[in-house]
Give the backbone structure.
Amino acid sequence: MVRKRRVDKRDSCRVLRTEVLPFETPLFFSNDRFYHALKSQRLSKAPELLKRFFFNKTYTVPFSYRIRKDEWSERTISVMHPSSQVAFVEFYRDYDTRITYLCRKSPCSVRAPVAVASYFFEPAFSTWNRKLKSTDVESARGGFEPDEVYASSYFRYGEITHLYKFYDSDEYQLLERKYPHLQQFDVSRCFDSIYTHSISWAVKDKYFSKVNKDQKQSFEAEFDSLMQKSNYNETNGILVGSEVSRIFAEIILQRIDLDILEDLKAAGVDSDSFALRRYVDDYFVFSDSAEIGRRVFSVARMHLERYKLFVNEGKTRVSTRPFVSPVSLAKRRVRLVMAAGVDQFAKNVKSFDFASSSAEEVEREVRKTSRLAKDTIDALLDACVEPEAGVKSIASYVLSSVARGIHRNARGFRKVSASGGSAVVEAYLLALLNIAFYVFTMDRRAYTCYLLCQVVVLANRIDAFLGEKVGSVRRDAIDRLVGSIRDLVRSQHGAVELANLVVALSSISDGFELSEVEVAKIVGARVGVHEFDLSGVDYFGMMTALRYIECEKKYSGLAAAINGEIEKRLLAEGDPSLFCDRVMMFVDFVSCPHVDRKIKLAIVERMHIRCLGRIPPNGMVGQVTNFIERDLGFTEWGKGLKIEQMLQKKALKVAY
């Protein structure tokens, strides 16, 4: 059931939860404690050292890292410095209605903020355990459900929140019926190419902006300045990953949309002979003829180049009706495969009369269910026969379908297990795990990894109700997770994907399945004889290792190496308060319950001297340490059921 959740529109601090972080982060990473510290105004009363970290008005250096784009390429995304995030809270508070005004100008855009959100709809999957709601949830009022701490967006968007929704929309079908030709293209390295000063060209015009370039305190001047300060004072390129960056780009691209339409109108092109649509930086030109499509494309390219943005020629595609790509065809076939296989089997399992069936009949049902994985995988391969539409193109759909299926049938499976059908439910869940992990090997990205974690956690919950079969599904999930982790390490996949698999593993495992050397290799350390070189391990890797090894003695060598490397890095050349990864690493290291307090106090004292240039007064080191332990932290150190809260938050965010 989808629930309607109220949002406090006056709470500008929710920017920290919805606008400034990339989607592709480890499950344990969030701004939750940061948000509460800022909203409660406790952060404004923090010791001077922490104020330097969170209220820095100068330029800052973001934390950038690589994630998998596909099997053969990666992309760099960034987390902006906490002080830049605070600055955007203030900016949204002052200009949120101005943002929506500037993002409503173009009739071409299919994804843009249209108003400040007053509520959001919570997906059914995120309500999988009502007992796990945060204690910070406020009481119900006004006929709505309680305020949810995990709101999805600061702004309200239209129906198109993801590109696939545009393809599935009524509008797309209407355009397909009206126009026989379609030309698709996108902007090459759009965010990396945006010139920050061009925001003023978009809001005013280029001539006015250049003549009045020293004007301060305008919306566009502040937005320009904040984007620069969040990215090491760079004017060429903006950070990739946050919704803030997408809004910045949207304002510029809306201006370009209007320039394109105005130019075509002046040239006498009939406005009814074409339709231009844009999803972020992906363009769709529907037209009466190929000639008109080429003309619109030419004008669009010209106006993009005026803003130093260039069309990706290699991804430009021209087609005629029907506008069906091989990937679209594959997804349609896969829907049928999942409905006929996975969904139908779930119905069969729930409707089977185990109480009055013989042992032979139950065993026959188990064997039939056990064949589900092979039959479904074969059908998926058959559905993806075109070269452009391999299994990797439909992996996210399959994984989300499996997760939804387990969630939707959980109560029924418990009843079946209680009535003597635990062996069939076990076979069904093992088949789904087989399908999920097979599909994940075809498309190992941060998003599909997150979906796989959903599947694992949901299957593990049902495992507890399997009677004499209890533990078998969990054991299978653990073995598959360990195998996938080792495969990703061998193929040198990104830290985020590995971090999330490790989170899933630690949440369902009673012990420590991975050796000290394996943990070190997972986070990217170089392993020697009785030593670990962590110089190439980034912030996420450090926290992944710390979170997994806890205080376990078998990892004492790695723990000592981590402590030494963090201290070395925090006190390295340069002002630590300017670097996003150093600030987050310092806060998380001090907030970590597995680090000896004496080590924390020593680090805090040295950071105080390094950042403020003086020895801390009596009691200050303890005050800073206590404040961080009580109020701050970007890493969730708890295990077990807390992964469900982590997954719930991810379910409410929209991956770009």
Remarks:
- Residues 130-149 have pLDDT under 50 and may be disordered.
- The CA atoms of residues 64 and 78 lie 4 Å apart.
- The first helix runs from residue 15 to 18.
